Amino acid sequence: TNSVRSQLNNGIRYLEFNVCIQSANYYTSNYYLTDTLENDLNQISDFMSSNEDEVILIDIDHIYTDYGSLS
Fold first, then answer.
1. What's the predicted TM-score (pTM) here?
2. CA separation (Å) from 4 to 31, 32, 36, 66, 70?
3. Beta-carbon contacts of residue 67 (< 8 Å; ≥ 6 apart)
């Protein structure tokens, strides 16, 4: 998959995240854990610092824990 930064550089402005909480750590997930939520948010922050006129929509679609879905 493409990194969040790569997707933003290619024109994507809507990001849908499924978040998984495991052992008090937050990950983005699409069946498999793909990255830490912190890393993805840092990539968005870095992009926004260089592109202050852009708007990015972030949809946190589901939040999963060790015990199942919270959404």
1. 0.84
2. 17, 16, 11, 25, 24
3. none
